[in-house]
Design brief:
Order of helices and strands: HEHEHEHHEEEHEHEHEEHHEHHH
Helix content: 40-55%
Number of helices: 13
Strand order of the largest sheet: 2-1-3-10-4
Bound molecules: D-xylonic acid
Largest sheet: 5 strands, mixed
CATH class of the largest domain: Alpha Beta
Structural class: alpha/beta
Distance between the termini: 72 Å
Length: about 325
């Protein structure tokens, strides 16, 4: 009897012993994720999928809370808070961060990417890793390239069908010199502005125009204060899911790995929800009365041609090696 009880007790402790160390690596964590976009943006779908994955991997110990509409500050401000270790995570466009990591400016070069698929291949591969090393050196761990997407122009004045139509248009650009130069070179009165100020600037007519993916035109309600939307697809910008390196380094290797793996799960979900919502968002803004037009492939080629000066002007500052690397990688992808 006694020996059976001891055997049973030993068996239980062995089983517990086997199960305990794996879970013991995970502590209770609750981290904040800052977002400039609103809660109905597909980033939230991605974060929900990421949370399900984290629950599974950490036995429910690692939780994240999204903050929306710039509640924890704009992209740049939130990113600086990560660098100084006072905030855990941000989902931000790469463009406002070029002052921190100049190489990120590569994504701002006009008409660089032609399709989502080639953008994914470049970002999820070696080139993306190469940029991640530069972010890491700046105190930022990039958990993955999520999608912001192809950017299109909306405005309150007229359809944009050729670059000359930008003449005199007061157009908000992100805090980024490549965007500033691209639109100034088209004749626009380009004004750098943080994302959180765009809606009211459009509403008060301080500016006429902005450029963002359809999903943002929809979820940030810009369509309420715009009359025209023109499919320029002049740039594809990613969202970076950044984590404070100072905080990340205090996490156990298993926790870090769970974050990386689950961010990839979230990214895939977010990208696929965006593809669907892009269509319904455009339908919704048209139903709200905006006039929609596309740009001919010939005109897009003309815009790219006109923009060569922007490539030349910014190549050294982005890093000639960086621009050459992305172009080489794109040439390989396109030759397949
Ligand atoms: C959201 C921004 C935004 C970006 C912009 O925080 O600023 O226009 O496209 O969506 O990162």
């Amino acid at each position: 009897m006694k020996s059976t009880a001891i055997k049973a007790a030993l068996l239980v402790s062995t089983l517990l012993g086997a199960a305990t160390p794996a879970m013991a690596e995970f502590q209770d964590r609750n981290f904040r994720v800052s977002n400039g976009i609103n809660e109905d943006h597909p980033v939230n779908n991605g974060m929900k999928a990421m949370q399900v994955c984290l629950d599974e991997k950490t036995g429910g110990k690692m939780k994240m809370t999204g903050f929306w509409g710039g509640a924890l500050g704009g992209d740049l401000q939130a990113t600086q808070a990560l660098r100084s270790g006072v905030q855990e995570a941000v989902v931000t466009s790469s463009s406002p961060l070029v002052g921190i990591v100049p190489a990120l400016g590569v994504f701002d070069l006009p008409f660089l990417f032609r399709s989502n698929e080639e953008a994914y291949e470049v970002m999820d591969g070696e080139f993306g890793d190469f940029l991640n090393e530069k972010l890491d050196a700046a105190g930022l761990v990039n958990l993955g390239y999520w999608e912001n997407g192809f950017r299109n122009v909306s405005n309150s004045k007229q359809p944009i069908t050729k670059w000359e139509d930008f003449e005199g248009l007061k157009l908000r650009v992100m805090q980024n010199n490549i965007f500033l130069d691209t639109f100034s070179n088209f004749g626009a009165n380009a004004t750098p502005m943080a994302f959180g100020e765009v809606f009211s600037a459009l509403e008060t007519k301080a500016i006429d125009a902005q450029e963002n993916p359809y999903v943002t035109l929809d979820t940030s309600k810009f369509y309420e204060v715009q009359n025209y939307v023109s499919e320029t697809k002049h740039a594809y910008t990613p969202f970076l899911f950044l984590f404070s390196k100072a905080i990340f380094n205090t996490y156990a290797p298993e926790e870090q790995q769970a974050l990386r793996d689950c961010a990839a799960v979230g990214r895939d979900e977010e990208r696929s929800v965006i593809q669907e919502l892009n269509k319904t968002s455009l339908a919704k803004v048209e139903a709200a009365g905006l006039k929609f037009n596309t740009i001919t492939p010939e005109e897009q080629a003309r815009m790219l041609e006109k923009s060569q000066v922007v490539y030349e002007k910014h190549k050294a500052e982005i890093g000639a090696d960086v621009v050459d690397a992305v172009q080489k990688s794109l040439a390989e992808i396109r030759a397949k």
